[in-house]
């Protein structure tokens, strides 16, 4: 069964605490928080103060995805804010190893993220040091996009590397995840599914999370 990480990008910001409590009580495994800087991706979202505020009202595992250029400058702020895991895009820094070290040295789980156009070979050197790999299944920056099926092969490749080398990272997927697209990803080796619009654009987000779990049993 896949773990589910609702993405608050699609939550109702005016009733954010209500939406977070709903998915927390309903069995969410993580809460996914997308940090966008308007440079690495076209949109701007939230900063460390936002993560700190959520930390005060929720015990959920905070899965913070930095879609920002040169993330190393911001990592400490997001550690201090109470993140449980911090993800950095391999395309956003010349120093991916250093960025991951900074996260780990701060006592937080470390994740490397790859965009749909980025090959797995680019992150191979750091796979032995991460707790999670995020395979973007859409181009990052916006919720509600269509899943890109060609990304499934990369999930399978990462699963094979994990088995061959005895690594134990989780493989997370993000973008266009729904009750259909999640199935092939799960079969290929995905262990965590981020879902934004599928979960929150429904009157019953908990039922949607349960569906993602049910179809991957
Ligand atoms: O990273 C992103 C968007 O770039 C996400 O985490 C979105 O929140 C996913 O939204 P859906 O595709 O599930 O609507």
From TrEMBL:
The lineage of its organism: Bacteria, Bacillati, Bacillota, Bacilli, Lactobacillales. Pathway: Carbohydrate degradation. Substrate binds at residues 7, 65, 141-144, 174-176, 196-197. One of its GO terms (biological process) is pentose catabolic process. One of its GO terms (molecular function) is metal ion binding. Its EC number is 5.1.3.1. NCBIfam families: PRK05581.1-4, rpe. Its cofactor is Fe(2+); Zn(2+); Mn(2+); Co(2+). Binds 1 divalent metal cation per subunit. This is Ribulose-phosphate 3-epimerase. SUPFAM superfamilies: Ribulose-phoshate binding barrel (SSF51366). One of its GO terms (cellular component) is cytoplasm. Catalyzes the reversible epimerization of D-ribulose 5-phosphate to D-xylulose 5-phosphate. Keywords: Carbohydrate metabolism, Cobalt, Isomerase, Manganese, Metal-binding, Zinc. A divalent metal cation binds at residues 32, 34, 65, 174. Pfam families: Ribul_P_3_epim (PF00834). The active site is at 34 (proton acceptor), 174 (proton donor). It comes from the Bacteria. The keyword Iron-sulfur does not apply. Belongs to the ribulose-phosphate 3-epimerase family. HAMAP family: RPE (MF_02227). It catalyses: D-ribulose 5-phosphate = D-xylulose 5-phosphate.
